[in-house]
Target: Hydroxylase molybdopterin-containing subunit
Amino acid sequence: MLPFVLEKANNTEAAIASAAAGARYIAGGTTLVDLMREEVERPDQLVDINALPLGDIRVDGEDLVIGALARMSDVATHPDVQRLQPVIAESLIEGASPQLRNMASMGGNLLQRCRCPYFRMLDSACNKRAPGSGCAAIDGLNAGNAILGTSDHCVATHPSDVAVALVALGATMRVRGPQGERSFPVEDLFRLPGNTPHLEHTLLPAELILEIRVPGGPHSRRARYLKVRDRASYEFALVSAAVALDVDNGLIRAARIAVGGVGTKPWRLRACEAALAGKAADRASFEAAAHLATDGARPLSHNHYKVELLPRTIVRALEMAGEVA
Model:
């Protein structure tokens, strides 16, 4: 690990001022410190934001509001989360080991870097790590890489599990930076790689995530997260699906579907959602809608299996959601 300067911020304004001067935010550090050890990330200065009052979990009307510094473990076990948005708790438990959940913050989870193996190989081409160097994964070992939202410059998947659930639920986030506060959908945080895959999110310089707001609704009760992976213990998703159904008398009034492990960002499937509206909550409807999930897919040499696995995962997740009493 290369030398760096660490300072501690006691209030939001001080943290933003440090970041505006070139410091990087650090909370749990479960991704950043790891990448610094491998010299993939080389910040000169870090600002510790753990003292900021951004760890609350509260209910505001029908909305669930989660502070950006709330730890994954605290969110997953919080009674209001389990009562109002159980799919968030489910995705967090599936998303990391207990040790990581105890350390990692919600904001940091959303901003974690990709897990393409070539990103961490300093002797391999990676446009995320070294813009313009190329993408070794396109013609290399790419079984875990994306089939949706890829470009000729990057095929890395976004690794967050809870981001998939938040996108499916239409969550928004509030951020603050040198130019003030703004709010926007969590879905809009993530960029497609295009020809600039090193630009991964839409935060402005020095902007700090303050909170995540998850709207409630009748769909929240019938919501499930299903993750398919190589092993049952801590592992990143090959394919995952967060689904939520609003069902009345056996008919689907509305559906929410987002998937992970297959896209360069958490992938909302609005065509599948539209195909389910007004249909019976049964396997035939689920299969017909899930068939649309692979439209535009660009499989690589080793990940063509995801084209078949993705709709199967969606169907099973929808069945699980339909079984909720």
Notes: The first strand starts at residue 5 and ends at 8. The mean pLDDT is 96. The radius of gyration is 19 Å.
